[in-house]
Amino acid sequence: MTTPPAAPAPEPISPVQARALAEGVLPPVEEVRPGIWTLAVPFRFGVPDATLVYVIEGTDGVLTVVDPGWSEDGSLDALSDGLRQIGRSVSDVGLVAVTHLHADHLGAAAAVRRASGARIAMHGLEVRALEDERADAARHEADIATWGVPHEFRSGLSDAWGIGRRIGLGATEPPYADVLLDDGDLLPVTGRSLRAIWTPGHTAGHLCFLDEPDGLLFTGDHVLPRINSGIGLGGRTASNPLGDYLASLARLDGYAALEVCPGHEYRFADVVSRARTLVRHREERSRHVAEALDALDAPTLFAVASRVPFSGGIESMRGFLLASALTQTAFHADLLGRAGEIRPA
Ligand SMILES: [Zn+2]
């Protein structure tokens, strides 16, 4: 059985960023609109893995930073360097708006707050996930024991997903947010209209930010041009993160005309087409999970996932990638109404 070819990645709006990605270098600072810039902050896995940070100037001159990116030991070198290139500094930042809790987005927020007194704005569910991360990790640890993972695949699983895990990765500190954002809230940015759109799935409290007057949609990790976002990578949720994710993709209908400003890779056009491609990818994966369940009698989660053609194959996966593949398989089975067919090990 062959997997149909993946749909082509959307055309970049920023050829500069697309070229930098292809060449494995950091993209330069770019002005996206008057008073709105993007700059790249690398994360610890090295270039070219970088977060695209957005800097938005209010009419009062105060800067808002959407996702300040990774910070190693509280350093703000990359962010400061980018701000210097637009004639500004970290002390000009009054608000840090965070799409989600992952360290490559939230990581530098606390350091920016310490340096400038900026407030941090985030969805309340992300704050709760950070507060609960130790308790969640213990429950994850208990899950791992039920997945039927063969011994040779277990190394790193606990560190990546269980009691060794830190989703905030220690880069942040309470209070995790000074402004709690909910769906539809306007960010407190003078002279701008930036509205939070709640898009759970990648994490439970993931937000996109909509700037309709400037024709921009900041999508964090909800929609990226080439990467298929992982699902359910925040705290534990009562609902199925995959179902949440598909509903969140549908929430972007109507924004096809906007320029998409994602958290990684490059800016691109037509979020609706990209969302459709992502839905098709999930449908395909659901089909593979259904076929695996049809073929197996009382399988473990690992046995089901072994039959799903994850890129690279599950044999090559360890640690975080393996945990993510297994939990996503469980979300698909649950959405199919077939979670009960999987036997806890
Ligand atoms: Zn990210």
- Shape category: globular
Q: Do you know the CATH topology of the domain at 15-136 and 167-270?
A: Metallo-beta-lactamase, Chain A
Q: Which regions have little confidence, pLDDT < 50, spanning 5+ residues?
A: 1-5
Continuous helix count? 11
Strand order of the largest sheet: 1-2-3-4-5-6-7
Q: Strand-residue fraction? A: 15-25%
Mean pLDDT: 93
CATH class designation of the domain at 15-136 and 167-270: Alpha Beta
Rg for CA atoms: 20 Å
CATH architecture of the domain at 15-136 and 167-270: 4-Layer Sandwich
What attributes does this structure have?
345 residues, alpha/beta, Metallo-beta-lactamase, Chain A, seven-stranded mixed β-sheet, globular, disordered N terminus, binds zinc ion
Please provide a written account of the structure.
The chain is α/β, with parallel strands linked by helices. The protein has a domain of 226 residues: Metallo-beta-lactamase, Chain A, CATH 3.60.15. It is built from eleven helices and twelve strands. Strands 1-2-3-4-5-6-7 form a seven-stranded mixed β-sheet. Helix 9 packs across helix 11. The longest helix is centred in the last third of the chain and has 25 residues. It is globular and about 65 Å long. The N terminus is likely disordered. Bound molecules: zinc ion. Zinc ion binds next to helix 3.
What is shown here, in short?
The protein has helices spanning 15-23, 77-85, 103-106, 109-116, 124-131, 133-144, 157-161, 241-250, 271-295, 301-306, 319-335, and strands spanning 30-33, 36-42, 50-57, 63-66, 93-97, 119-123, 179-181, 195-198, 207-211, 216-220, 259-262, 268-269.
